[in-house]
Amino acid sequence: MCKKRLFSAAARLSPGEALYARGSFPRKVSCQQLPANQPSCLLILSLLNSADKGLGFWGDHSFPKWRGQKRKHNEGRVEVFYNGEWGTVCDDDFTIHAAHVVCRQLGYVEAVSWSPASKYGKGEGRIWLDNVHCNGREASLAVCTSNGWGVSDCKHTEDVGVVCSEKRIPGFRFDDSLLNQIENMNIQVEDARIRPILSAFRNRIPVTEGYVEVKEGGIWKRICDRNWTTKNSRVVCGMFGFPSEKKYNVRVYKMTAARRKHTYWAYSMDCTGNEAHISSCKLGNRISTASGNATCENGMPAVVSCYPGRAFAPGSHSGFRKAFQPEFPLVRLKGGAKIGEGRIEVLMNGEWGTVCDDQWNLVSASVVCRELGFGSAKEAIMGARLGQGMGPIHVTEANCKGFEKSFTDCKFSTQLGSCTHEEDASVRCNVPAMGFQNQIRLSGGRTPYEGRVEVLRELNGTLKWGTVCSDKWGTIEAMVVCRQLGLGYAAHAFQETWYWYGETSTSDVLMSGTKCSGTEMALSHCRHDTHVFCPRGGGRFAAGVSCTETAADLVLNAKEVEYTSYLEDRPMFMLQCALEENCLASSAVNTSISTGYRRLLRFSSQIHNNGQADFRPKSGRHSWIWHDCHRHYHSMEVFTHYDLLDLNGTKVAEGHKASFCLEDSECLDGFQKQYECANFGEQGITVGCWDVYRHDIDCQWIDITDLVPGEYFFRIIVNPNKEVAESDYSNNIMKCKCKYELHRVWMYNCHIADAFSEEIEEQFDFNGLLNNQVS
């Protein structure tokens, strides 16, 4: 007789338990009819993750006891557990139909692709299945025909891998491993929620307190609190986006519970407190009576009360505003498209640095999320999938217990070994459901990722949909819209949308004067007019956006500027083209062409694209501007600003650089050049490549002819007008200290603007830092 156990849809990452540590979302599936000589079986399907160290995919590292840590939860090597032993599946005769079966068994809607030849690393031990033939409709891989269990002529170089869709089949299964006495169980829950009960919490967003309910068989059921612990509450709060649990008024809930009848779930839960989701918790004892109905004698429905992070705290309750994010944070997320996701950076010795993904898992990632005021981690991401950082790598082999107040309290190593920024760790955190996505929509676009922006606003006491005035509408505002809708980054911001037909009833302008900083969670949080003022009206001039899942991220090499700076006195007769392109100070028009000269502060710019998408000019080459003097096209009229400021922050000299040639000068290993300016070629900077504007080309300078020697601040801003979308604009500014003497110049302490702690950055902060007017 086969025993059926259905394990959780979220793998444990404890290295001490091989069953859980090896796979992403391991799940036991139904046994099939076996020959009489095999009286018992246990079949488990697992996706071995593509970040397995020492198994071939990530190079020469060897960390076998840490196999199966998550890189992306829906891809990896396929392994099955049969007769007490893990084994792989050979790629002979494997098809997309078999991949569909695998993915559905693991809880995903379908397969996207499959990979032969051990793309996700070579497995170990047995090769259980070979020559697998499926039609795609089977309920289990064991139903498909094959050579039989363990009958194979393959080697582990032929282990098959699959990529499943991101979309999961609704519901999750619980780990019922404590219920050994119960056989033939299929404990699956369709959903879970916190249901507000007291009137003070019913209309509050987000919902922070109430009964814990699970949906089973289409019916919402409550959980008896007899075996409920604060550890259970911590896990529930974490999966709903809250960093921790808090006490609640037990007496009030007992009074409320006594007045109502309750439908109870038949099981209790037993969490350790560091799980990322309740599906990873063990099930407690069954609590049903002899009649089969679940009861809760001498108990009541389990209640949780959660602390929201500061950004999600209800404004009317100042008591909720606990400082989960310290005033001077030690951890931050960079480059994420959505709230609560990004590359992890840690502050050490006053400098921000990244975390290497060796041994990176959900437990450590959850500590980061909770420290930042979010819930537990939804995904621990490896392989710099949310962009590479620059500067130092501070941490590797992070090993958190799950209860640390700060990620810096976890055990970790600073011996980096072979770690590079290609292994930067990232995270996606659970965040509270705020409902912001229901307050805005895109209308008329060809795809769900584009369209005219429409907002839901109250007008004369009635909620109404309407448009947003496009006056001064730009990339930053579009970024907020795309983030609010969960559609990633903004690809473009449109000030005319006549080609996107929306409903006539929604053409009224309901929002104008919109100005965002870029950090807002919703467009309504941006500054906007109290009274709508839009002379151009809505209609064809309504604001629009197009969104994209990936974006570029330009970062300047600060040390290159420091190493290449020097002075040049250049004759005026050699600067006529530069004068025409406004690359000189205003006093240059009075300089004699035959005898005069200009003093230039020259330097090189090396601009890296560390993002996930190529950096391309906003305009296509059909609209590039030809400059006859220099004999080239400008794909962006302003690509960089160069500024010198005095110690009070007043700009005393400036320069600018148009992008006459954006191309791939060099690339990291494994990346190919795509853009070359020659012969009117396409311009851009490929991911993993950089563009170099050498110190000896025109306009690669600041004209300091009128400047007196002294101490100054030097600043470069890349993509200053934010014409092109990037995943992170905060690293587009580079700062240096500059000492100018009559015949020489020194640049020192050059760094990216957000590379150091606030205390160190205060040396460079001054009034007028972002003032672009020359005094």
TrEMBL record:
* SUPFAM superfamilies in the record: SRCR-like (SSF56487)
- What PROSITE patterns does UniProt report for this protein, alphabetically? LYSYL_OXIDASE, SRCR_1, SRCR_2
Instruction: Specify the SRCR domain's residue ranges.
Output: 45-165, 194-307, 331-430, 440-548
Q: Which domain of life is it from?
A: Eukaryota
Q: Which InterPro entries match?
A: LOX-like_protein (IPR050912), Lysyl_oxidase (IPR001695), Lysyl_oxidase_CS (IPR019828), SRCR (IPR001190), SRCR-like_dom_sf (IPR036772)
Main subcellular location: nucleus
What does the record give as EC number? 1.4.3.13
Q: How this protein is processed and modified after translation, per its record?
A: The lysine tyrosylquinone cross-link (LTQ) is generated by condensation of the epsilon-amino group of a lysine with a topaquinone produced by oxidation of tyrosine.
Cysteine disulfide partners in this protein: C90-C154, C103-C164, C134-C144, C271-C281, C400-C410, C516-C526
Keyword Signal belongs to the record: yes
Q: Which cofactor does it need?
A: Cu cation
Q: Does the keyword Glycoprotein apply?
A: yes
Example of a GO cellular component annotation carried by this entry: basement membrane
User: What's the family?
Assistant: Belongs to the lysyl oxidase family.
By what name is this protein known?
A: Lysyl oxidase homolog
